Amino acid sequence: MRILQQCMYFPPEVGGLESHVYYLCRDLVRLGHEVTMVTSRSKPEAAAREVVEGIRVVRTWFPGKNTLGWSLHTLASIPTYERLAREADVLHAQDFASGPPAMLAKRLYGKPLVLTLHTSHFLRLAKKPLWRPVLRRIIASADWLLAASEELRDVGLSLYPHPRAEALTNGVDTDMFRPVAGALPAPRPGRRRVIVPRRLFPKNGVEYFVRAMPLVRAEIDVEAILVGDGPERPRLEALARELGVADAVHFLGARPNAEMPGLICSAEVAVFPSLMEATSVAALEAMSCERPVAASRVGGLPEIVDESVGTLFEPANPESLAERLVALLRRGDLAEAGERARARVVGRWSLERLARRHEEIYRTLLSEKR
Q1: 2-171+350-369: CATH class
Q2: Do 2-171+350-369 and 192-348 show the same overall fold?
Q3: Alpha-carbon distance 296 to 287, whole Å?
Q4: What confidence tens digit (pLDDT) does each residue in 207-231 have?
Q5: At what angle do helices 99-109 and 67-85 cross, to 10 degrees?
Q6: What is the residue extent of each domain of the chain?
Q7: How far apart are CA 68 and CA 196, in angstroms?
Q8: Which candidate, 119, 120, 155, places its Cα nearest to that of 139?
Q9: pTM to 2 decimals?
Q10: Residue 4 parent element (H or E)
Q11: If one looks up domain 192-348 in CATH, what number appears?
Q12: Helices (H), 142-280
């Protein structure tokens, strides 16, 4: 099959959506399909056209990371997208912003269209009266509606009762994300270590983790590795100093995806204090590395985390976070919980299973078209 994908962001951009789309495209190529990705040139150093692991990547103009920038990029991508769509068998819009070019191509060429709903940004816009008719029309245009979590699917269905709506959690490269030697030196004797692989934006709730650290340290000698960057970093560093935990909260900044297995395996537990979360590829990656996960009870996180593989706490609540994290670190079955976590990811959310399900959907739509 010739599959035309579109997504606002793609590597070298770093994030859960970017990783998901890249790995899905790569594994579809490995299954023998021709895959083209239309994306933005959000990183000026990225090539306008290149082939990445068999994926033909076409990057178009991108004015900025804001609502106006996203809208202008979508409009500017239409001529390039329509030329490529003429030769495609299947169209797949990987975010609602990719919907308009695909909708036009479907109307012009009669190609089947799959739409996937990702990210908390969609959840926010779905609450706004001005955006609801726009999102409803985009969802209604799809021949098959996918969503990265049950919450995203249900919100999509509240906008339009799509007859083919399916929650399909993002996949993980379980060969890459596996137990490996830790990339960081071990902490001093008697000290525990957790990792917080979160970009430093308000929605990721890292502030509440920092506020929980004095409470955790009152019970257990622990240090935290924060992997990720963002506009919140100066404020969070100042907060750690103010709370007297700067010596135990280490900001590593953004790191390439290839370094993450070693960093995750340098810690005993991964913490995700999100305030909003459609689904979390990063949490699945930590689980795939046999690390138990402590996560907020929001969005798609309760769909992947329970007490057998970690714990859940209340969002924006440092006391709840501290209580559950201390209880998790004191459990005698951390290693077994990590093993169960990896087994769950391999069994339900491996990239091969994800790619083959997409392949089934594409083939079904093409068969019906014929």
Answers
A1: alpha beta
A2: yes
A3: 15
A4: 999 999 999 999 999 999 999 999 9
A5: 30
A6: 2-171+350-369, 192-348
A7: 31
A8: 155
A9: 0.80
A10: strand 2-6
A11: 3.40.50.2000
A12: 150-159, 206-217, 233-242, 260-264
